[in-house]
Amino acid sequence: xxxxxxxxxxxxxxxxxxxxxxxxxxxxxxxxxxxxxxxxxxxxxxxxxxxxxxxxxxxxxxxxxxxxxxxxxxxxxxxxxxxxxxxxxxxxxxxxxxxxxxxxxxxxxxxxxxxxxxxxxxxxxxxxxxxxxxxxxxxxxxxxxxxxxxxxxxxxxxxxxxxxxxxxxxxxxxxxxxxxxxxxxxxxxxxxxxxx
Length: 196
What we know:
Layout: E1 6-10, H1 21-32, H2 40-52, H3 58-65, H4 74-85, H5 91-96, E2 102-108, H6 109-119, E3 123-127, H7 144-153, E4 159-165, H8 171-174, E5 177-184, E6 187-190
Parallel strand pairs: 1-2, 1-4, 2-3, 4-5
Antiparallel strand pairs: 5-6
């Protein structure tokens, strides 16, 4: 447990990063490793099963998606990816960041470690995905799981001063903050707790 008393908490994709870093990394990897295309039929089936037929979990779908990592040189690819994508960190965040900021994201932890290190962010909670097999250790870090992971790392006496996200799926985290903001591009608006 950490003994911070007051922190600001941020989602990553489309919040402090302009875009979806996982999607950007997959596109980047496809260009470097065309063999990844062989995973597409299986990924498409998993997509239909989860998003259309509403069967299985998001974690199960993503494990199928991340099988593409078998065709990557993941550590090297991630380093090279961030050499060209750190520019996507939004200016409003760079102007307001603090050394005890907390990032909680559904994206893979192995993908977000480098930008967090570059930004001086000490606390990162993200989906624990094996960078070689795509298999998860635990659940996809999303929704209520983000709150669970937060209290797994911090004492329940911690005060979340401000929370920022682009998605109302993060309402469970928004509820534990003194003030929460929905992020659209570079605009911040008060959280609407009536939305889902």
